[in-house]
Q: What sequence folds into this?
């Protein structure tokens, strides 16, 4: 006897909900690991500039000002990474908050260096 169409239909919403819940909890967070968002080294200058401008329009990027802990190294990839991480952290560390049009990576190694501490909320 073939399965009824109604039983298949009723299981699809449950399957969809389960999949949605799984995708909404990043694996690293489920395992209790800390995560940060950084720019991909292969990102082009225009993309990094757009990411920096967008992130800093959403969060406080004063840490990147001259004289602050994360001003040096004074280069685009470093500043973009810090701004992108500030945005990612402030939005709940969801993988989609570190997408930036596929120009970012979620990492489990703390990218902090010297006097520059990458925020982890």
A:
């Amino acid at each position: 006897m073939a399965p009824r169409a109604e039983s298949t239909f009723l299981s699809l919403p449950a399957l969809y909900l389960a999949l949605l819940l799984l995708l909404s909890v990043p694996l690293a967070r489920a395992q209790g690991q800390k995560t940060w968002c950084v720019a991909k080294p292969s990102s082009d200058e225009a993309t990094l500039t757009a990411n920096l401008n967008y992130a800093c329009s959403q969060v406080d990027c004063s840490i990147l000002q001259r004289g602050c802990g994360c001003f040096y190294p004074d280069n685009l990839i470093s500043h973009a990474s810090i701004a992108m991480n500030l945005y990612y952290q402030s939005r709940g560390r969801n993988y989609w908050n570190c997408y930036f049009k596929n120009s970012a990576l979620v990492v489990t190694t703390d990218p902090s260096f010297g006097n520059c501490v990458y925020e982890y909320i």
The first strand starts at residue 36 and ends at 39. The radius of gyration is 19 Å.
